[in-house]
UniProtKB/TrEMBL annotation:
Keywords assigned: Amino-acid biosynthesis, Decarboxylase, Lyase, Lysine biosynthesis, Pyridoxal phosphate
Database matches in SUPFAM superfamilies: Alanine racemase C-terminal domain-like, PLP-binding barrel
Protein name as annotated: Diaminopimelate decarboxylase
Names of the cofactor(s): pyridoxal 5'-phosphate
Species per Swiss-Prot/TrEMBL record: Pendulispora brunnea
MF annotations from Gene Ontology: diaminopimelate decarboxylase activity
Pfam families in the record: Orn_Arg_deC_N (PF02784)
PANTHER family named among the record's database cross-references: DIAMINOPIMELATE DECARBOXYLASE, GROUP IV DECARBOXYLASE
EC number: 4.1.1.20
Length: 466
């Protein structure tokens, strides 16, 4: 029997996992493998949970959903129907937000390297804020807005000067990272704002990182940034009316009460376990950040306050169904299971040794008591979901029922965020399809499966480039 399994919408009936009334075996049969399955009711619950927690302390609060986590149009539409705005991170994400008709007043735009074209799109759309990553970008936005005779809303992204306790590649809140501006840049920001009256200063943006598991990181960030905002207003006269506290709230990567271990039972490093537990109280983060505001000399009630969650609203609302295609024995007693799902579908396994919990969806009552090595279909040794290369951040085996075999449905949990977006066609593999199980129980396609024709559709073959 599987313990409470990350997502409450996943239930076991007669030994098979179900999303609502739909067994994972039926879904895979009907829609194919690999298949992302989203639960609309879980998305709604995740959003409402955040809104309740933050609205208790921030009366003028809005979620700006970080569309980089999953920018499927139906997911975006659902977020907007729940009163969220959209955080775009590129011209493409801006285009998607505009395509579904989001009010530009509810769009913010992040990114370190916005091109003139992208800036122009944002200025023409009249978005709520450019989260401005550098002085040079501030000038670029000023130049574009001046040329167009329009005003652009700007919120400099400042470096909060904290570490979130996450994987190094997700730490964005320290001065060594490529993101944002140090507080020392603020006098120059004020000078550029004066030089370009077409820039409308709205406030500051900051972001600590992703899968940040320390409440203290969020509250320290706000203590630092709010103090600077107050000083900036006093010293320059540029008064903020908005604050964007960024994203980064974590999700549990493992079912409650379980912790994967190596084959010999030895534990993973404590910091890795903390990341996997991903337990943080969102009401506590909301309360403690608001307390940090007051300690720094500002009342959150006087500001429009945004957060930009991605993972914490969509991550647990999606699972990935795949298929065991081969099983092989090796000396040493740990069999290999090879599925049709590799780092082409879940790239963060490769880049960050990201842990996705896997269960055998059609053996949900069988004890996961047998060690396996678990690989995908790609031509790399690194295409495995256990520690195959000795880096030490993943368990060196995966635990599944003894009888797991070819044809079984492997369910990969917590794959709602940063998978669909990052999939690739590596090794000539068409990208996975996605469906959503609506709150009324109906299943609908939200992304069709790619075909082999799609794989060649953009190539010119031997034709000369135009
Ligand atoms: C600026 C910014 N905002 C929001 C997010 C979303 O973070 P998460 O999905 O961890 O909530 C990110 C992700 O890295 C980001 O860079």
């Amino acid at each position: 029997m599987i313990p409470n399994i990350i997502a409450p919408y996943l239930q076991e009936h007669h030994g098979v996992l179900h999303v609502g009334d739909h067994s994972v075996m039926d879904l895979r049969e009907r829609f194919g493998s690999n298949l992302f399955v989203f639960s609309e009711s879980q998305i709604t619950e995740n959003v409402r949970h955040l809104q309740r927690a933050y609205q208790a302390h921030y009366p003028r609060f809005r979620i700006m959903y970080a569309s980089k986590a999953c920018s499927n149009l139906e997911i975006l539409r659902h977020m907007v129907s729940l009163d969220c705005g959209i955080d775009a991170n590129s011209g493409g994400e801006l285009f998607k937000a505009r395509h579904i008709g989001v009010n530009p007043e509810r769009v913010v735009y992040n990114g370190t390297s916005k091109s003139v074209d992208e800036v122009t799109q944002g200025v023409l759309a009249g978005i709520r804020a450019f989260n401005v990553d550098s002085i040079s970008e501030l000038k670029r936005i000023g130049d574009v807005a001046r040329r167009l005779g329009l005003t652009a809303n700007v919120m400099p992204r400042v470096i909060p000067g904290v570490l979130g306790g996450t994987v190094a590649g997700f730490e964005t809140g320290h001065v060594g990272s490529k993101f944002g501006m140090p507080f020392e840049d603020l006098p120059e920001v004020a000078r550029v704002l004066r030089e370009y009256p077409c820039l409308k200063f709205r406030g500051f943006h900051c972001h600590v990182g992703s899968q940040v598991v320390r409440t203290e990181a969020f509250s320290s960030a706000m203590r630092n940034v709010v103090a600077e905002m107050v000083r900036f207003g006093r010293e320059t006269g540029f008064m903020a009316d908005t604050m964007n506290m960024g994203g980064g709230l974590p999700i549990p990567l493992v079912p409650e009460g379980t912790m994967p271990a190596h084959r010999d039972g030895s534990p993973l490093p404590e910091d890795v376990q903390a990341l996997m537990r991903g337990t943080i109280s969102i009401p506590d983060v909301a309360a403690e950040t608001a307390a940090a505001w007051r300690a720094a000399g500002a009342d959150p009630a006087d500001f429009d306050v945004f957060i930009e969650p991605g993972r914490s609203v969509i991550g647990t609302a999606g699972i990935l169904l795949s298929t065991i295609e081969a099983r092989k024995t090796r000396p040493g007693g740990v069999d290999w299971l090879l599925s049709d799902c590799g780092f082409n579908t879940m790239p963060e396994t490769l880049w960050y040794d990201w842990y996705y919990h896997v269960v055998a969806g059609n053996r949900a009552r069988e004890a996961a008591d047998t060690a396996f090595r678990l690989g995908g279909p790609l031509c790399d040794t690194g295409d495995s979901q256990h520690d195959e290369t000795g880096r030490g951040r993943l368990p060196n085996v995966r635990w599944l029922p003894k009888n797991t075999r070819i044809g079984d449905c492997l369910v990969v949990l917590g794959t709602g965020a940063y998978c669909i977006e990052q999939q690739s066609n590596y090794n000539g593999r068409p990208r996975a399809a996605a469906v959503i199980v609506r709150s009324n129980g109906v299943v609908e396609w939200i992304t069709r499966r790619e075909t082999y024709e799609d794989l060649i559709a953009r190539d010119f073959g031997a034709r000369r480039a135009p």
